[in-house]
Protein 1
Amino acid sequence: MAFTLPPLPYEPAALEPTIDAQTMTIHHDKHHNTYVTNLNAAVQGTEFENMEIGELIANLDRVPAEKRTAVRNNGGGHWNHSMFWQIMGPGGGGAPTGEVAQAIDQAFGSFDAMKEQVNKAGAGRFGSGWAWVIIGADGALAVTSTPNQDNPLMTGVAEQTGTPILGVDVWEHAYYLKYQNRRPDYLAAWWDAVNWDAVNERFRQARG
Ligand code: MN3
């Protein structure tokens, strides 16, 4: 069984004006699709093609050395983007809701304080990567960042290990058509697209 590209859960224009339709279409149909294609090429005919993607990227040490980089980059890309589409949505933004709102206040003092940390992590990530809010080893929310398509589930690879409940793509392909070199502007605007119901669902699932 091969990994498959999940459909965008809304129209490509649904996140405008925060993210333009052309960026969404290229990002999903081309970039994410390429990660899926390359991941499948790497794991075809191995036991790894039947693993759940989160389990696969959390166990890169089990992948043979000659395939590990391909699985790390493309498996990470597949997981990261599958999450990214889900935690955004039309009519998103505003203040966090539900249980995650309380956890944010506990960990960071306020939503604004958390946003500032995430935006700083994203703006400070040299080159391409992601900024994340994770449930860390101590069970509390924390902000971290990874290069390339690395993911906090990756042991010994990610800057900090944990379960992401939210992540923002800071590769240029995520924002360049609309924001050009202004990554901080993209990050500041991005929160208007966040689907807090979806983030709450991830938070609940991660806590078990
Ligand atoms: Mn991307």
Protein 2
Amino acid sequence: MTPTLDLFGGDDPAQHGRVALGPQSVVLRGYALPAVEALLAGVDAVTAQAPFRQMVTPGGYTMSVALTNCGELGWTTDARGYRYSRIDPQTGQPWPAMPDAFRQLAQDAAREAGFPGFSPDACLVNRYEPGSRLSLHQDRNERDYGAPIVSVSLGMPALFLFGGDERGDRAARVPLFHGDVVVWGGVDRLRFHGVMPLKDLPHPRLGSRRINFTLRKAG
Ligand code: SIN
Ligand code: FE2
């Protein structure tokens, strides 16, 4: 599916800043901008307790993206596989609480995208530096595919890849900017997605970093 890169959505004011990626997936341009300072304070609070770290995939590859989590459940990977865990394997402590600003934004964005009543219990926080990338994958470690994924982008821009239900399906390249929120769920819940290697285009607030966090209902 080709995304509609019409940022102004024709004449309908309700469509301003929306880019449809599929029947139940949308980019909400700049949706997080009013909350940026609260979100960044949340990232600082989370990473003070659970620092960013580079994890190793089951295939033995060290991810170029550094990650941490907040909420009841956190996504982890190691030689034994991918899974959600209540405990941060690095600190032995529960993951930090999900900041209210994260939860509120996710609920609002999900509703805006047609998924009312979203109640995330897991938030994966990713930190990209120039050259970091995320290869095409599906988010399928969650128990409940009925809930959407809400993905918030801050800092440097990235080219998001949004493919189909099969790994080999052609992927659209969707630029994501500071403050953009992507929501995918329903028939689009298992679409393959990823991130192209980041260029060094320093952001005025975050420098040579991109922070992305994805909120999920994992348990
Ligand atoms: C993810 O798939 O977990 C992250 C996507 C992104 O960084 O935009
Ligand atoms: Fe993902």
Protein 3
Amino acid sequence: MSGETPRNSVSGCGARVTLAAMPTPALPPSRHLVLGVTGGIAAYKCAELVRLWVRQGHTVDVVMTAAAKAFVGPATFQALSGRPVRDDLWRSETGGMDHIALSRGVDALIVAPASADFIGKLTHGLADDLLSTLCLARDCPLLIAPAMNRQMWENPATRRNVAQLRADGIAVLGPASGEQACGEVGEGRMLEPAEIVWRVESHLLPKPLAGRRVLITSGPTLEPIDPVRALVNRSSGRMGHAIAAAARDAGATVTLVSGPVAVPAPGDVQTIRVETAAEMLDAVEAQIAGTDIFIGVAAVADYRSEMQAPHKLKRDGGPLKLDLLPNPDILATVAGRANPPFCVGFAAESQDLLAHAEAKRRRKGLPLLVANDASAIGSEASRLHLLDDTGVHSLPPADKAVSGRWVVDHIAHLFNQGETP
Ligand code: CTP
């Protein structure tokens, strides 16, 4: 919902830039995770999963079923985790009760791969080995990454079981679709380890935007000159898509309006594809009702060619003159509505970054503008500066996925502050 009073107030006047204190953005915390490995060929990929978690500074305890040991040896997981692997309900390394103690004080229990058989056991609360007993006795979030043949995944028994697990509050990650170890093609592949790492972390993050609707523009717009040529701004769409994923992970319902980009659309985000600035504005206006937060990340082309030739223009050796017409300013249009959502702008500047960015924030009447150096366009990493009414908060250089989370944390903080009576 949008409030009754405009949220996009900018205090003070002039483009003075002050440096504001900002708590160092939180890095993903070190977590204590328990990985349950069941019997499936994807078990070999879990060696990589453990390696990724350990590299991020997490502590990982591995529990294996008897069937899992038919695919991978415990020594592999022991070496990678640096901790003893548990596989026996009746024999504990510590002399205590592993099926109780192992889930106490941990951040999450993840079963990957989760076989059809193990999913069936979980659904019915069976507890006849260490991992199934541990799942039943847990007091932490449980996530499963199913992996099985596509027919097993599509079997009504499996569908019923998975629906029941979801209803019981268990997070189901994947599965992915593609070529399977058995040679068949379809849904049932375990998600790749890096994707599991990302999904688990997303699941565990706080949800400061739960129940909120966020609308985001991303990527460039493309303004045709003739059927093969166009005017375009440089933008990969990586930052806009990372912001969309971060807002989703913060609990929001996210709609992304994206210009032409090669990056894949984030999962669980409604994505609307457009080409031109006019189409982007139409899509934004069609979605704006009920939006709480609007984030304009798109590099919208400021001009379009007046001439749009129906056929390819032929080179005649002489200069070509184009008349350019101004495009609508999508962000300013949204911010200028009667009851605007909380509006956030982005600005890439090639000189006097902070002064230009602050002037732009004031001109567009935005409570928050995110500035970055134009030389970083197209790169994997970014160094962002957040400009709001309290001054400039400079973030450390980071991968766009991480920067995106920091930006969304700051948006959620300002938005929720404005909502508090
Ligand atoms: N923006 C927009 N529609 C436009 C131009 C910009 O919605 N036609 C949004 C961008 O998505 C971004 C912000 O406005 O959030 C700033 O974009 P930028 O191109 O830096 O600003 P301009 O207003 O175009 O200023 P200039 O190009 O003169 O620097």
